Amino acid sequence: MSDRLSMQDPRTQYPQPPFPRQPQPAPGIASKMDPVPDHGETSYQGSGKLEGRKALVTGGDSGIGRAAAIAFAREGADVAISYLETEEADAKEVVQLIEAEGRKAVALPGDITDEAWCRELVARTVEQLGGLDILVINAGRQQNREDISKVTSEDFDRTLKTNLYAMHWIAQAAVPHLPAGASVITTASVQAYDPSAILLDYATTKAGIVAYTKALSKQLLKKGIRANVVAPGPFWTALQASGGQPPEKVAKFGAESEYGRPGQPVECAPIYVLLASQDGSFINGEVYGITGGAGVA
Ligand code: NAD
Ligand code: MG
Predict the structure, then answer these.
(1) CB of 232 closer than 6 A to ligand 1?
(2) What are phi and psi of 191, to 5 degrees?
(3) Contact status, residue 60 vs residue 286, Cβ threshold 8 Å
(4) Considering only the top CATH level, what class is 31-280?
(5) What is the pLDDT of residues 234-281, one digit of tens each?
(6) With a 6 A CB cut-off, is 114 part of the ligand 1 pocket?
(7) Over the stretch 155-181, which tens digit does the pLDDT of each residue have?
(8) What is the greatest pairwise CA distance in the chain?
(9) Cβ contacts of residue 26 below 8 Å, gap of 6+?
(10) What's the pTM?
């Protein structure tokens, strides 16, 4: 059994703040973080729950999406990951990890604020994997701005394009390919319910993701397809270190949690696997919080 699964106090299972100051330009690179996040590289154990499935994970190069991609491959799925071109180094590691499981990996670098690319990345996934059974819409933009006056139209536009428009474009392109039994999973946030003052545009999109996914789940179930939302609390990812939070907050990220630490991406993986697999057969239109005690709604 991996140490991750041995019985222990979860508060002290992973690194606690203070962390070194470590600002990066967006999008951040996971391998440059200190400590490097645990995405399950050596700690996630599969048990055949997704044997033969074909998955697409946006933002699968790093953070929560990477943890889902690694877990899906360990559970027996072929996995396509989408990411920005500047994240190639992180993406290469994920491709190697998927291939190390004997599964097929598809790398899809490109900017999802472009509608044509969103449609293209779904088409390439379907073509190269021979179908699509699990769609994880997870890529996101989060840039803190301390005051409403600082949220430019460019900010607002880019956050909404990345977090909301791309979700719609990718889902719309994917739905005709999804068979009965398929699963759609979106990544919202505790920010949908308890928004921070410094995340006006971001929190707005996260509430939108919840509403969109719940509405979509009602349509899709008529075809035997489920759709659910994961709503994480504070997770140790490149998103936070690259402008998601001010650098001084990154240094004590997670300190305010009842755990006194942030979550590690691998701690999200079991929920993505549950929602993706037939184990989640009666779970539809739900929001799964993984917040370390902050709760959702
Ligand atoms: P992350 O930076 O590791 O992942 C986000 C990914 O989004 C990037 O790797 C990047 O590939 C992708 N992305 C961003 N803009 C893109 C664009 N224009 N085109 C293509 N890809 C783009 O950080 P993460 O924290 O794992 O974020 C994953 C999801 O989790 C996001 O939706 C985020 O809002 C959500 N989330 C994170 C936290 C947290 O504390 N880390 C909490 C709640 C929700
Ligand atoms: Mg990344």
Answers:
(1) yes
(2) -60, -20
(3) no
(4) alpha beta
(5) 999 999 999 999 999 999 999 999 999 999 999 999 999 999 999 999
(6) no
(7) 999 999 999 999 999 999 999 999 999
(8) 52
(9) 141, 143, 242, 243
(10) 0.98
Beta strand segments in the chain, E: 54-58, 78-83, 105-109, 134-137, 183-187, 226-232, 287-290
Determine the atom of ligand 1 nearest the C-alpha atom of 202. Answer: 34
Domain ranges for the chain, please list them: 31-280
With a 6 A CB cut-off, is 64 part of the ligand 1 pocket?
yes
| Integer Cα distance of 158 and 163 in angstroms | 8
Q: Which atom of ligand 1 is nearest to the CA of 234?
A: 40
C-alpha torsion angle, residues 280, 281, 287, 292 (rounded to 10): -20
**Confidence class of residue 296 from pLDDT cuts 50, 70 and 90?**
confident
- Tell me the backbone φ, ψ of residue 288, rounded to 5 degrees: -95, 115
The length of the chain is 297
Among 70, 229, 237, residue to substitute to test ligand 1 (most atoms within 8 Å of Cβ): 237
Is 141 near ligand 1, meaning CB less than 6 Å away?
yes
Query: Of the listed 44, 202, 272, 288, which one is catalytic?
Result: 202
Average the pLDDT over 51-62 and give the result.
Answer: 98
